[in-house]
Amino acid sequence: MRVGGALAAALCALALTACGTERAGSEVAAGAVMTATPTVSPTPTEARPDPMDDPALTVEEGRAAVAFMRLLTDVAAPCERSSEGLPAESPGVQPPPRPGDSAAPAPVKDLPPLGDTSWNFERVRQEVELGDTEECAALGHGSRIAKALDGSGDPTAAHVEKALAEIGYDLPYRLHGPEEVGGRVEFTLDLRGGELCLDGTYDGTRTTFDPYGAHPAVYCTDVKRRG
Q: Could you report the per-residue pLDDT of 114-142, keeping only the tens digit for each?
């Protein structure tokens, strides 16, 4: 799913929320709904819920979600323009062989058969390969965060959380951590309008990043990384 489509869906959700009534006890319910903490069971029996699909979102929560999606769109926009300017087919590249040709590639055996909609946590938690646009967007997010964090203060969870919030990464269910580990601060950002997740580490001097892709049915922290 492209970031632009996710933004449109978020705007629709906000409009519907604004026309309805806010839920009672929203402060208590928000804590339960908006926190993307993995469940106790290591093997969920169904897809992880998307907080954006919660019909009980308050107007304020909806606005915050839309603002976050706008941030994703803005960071990815230069990458999308760049990819759209590439030729659809490189010179000299031959079209793929037809299924009946002897040179046709063999089917990948570990993919589920067509029409298989059964839930399989181990399958959907596998790392997803990022496309060029999202790899480019990962660099954009990393640059923004490094500019805000590098050399800005001691590596504490509170400091990192505040710095991330000041540049727009402030939705609770989009941020896992930050956590202090061995004198550094580690955090994971869910930047999915498509598949992008970003692990970050701040050591008090510089920030390092590791982008990867995740299926929409799991949390970024569920992903089983390659290697």
A: 445 578 999 999 999 999 999 999 999 99
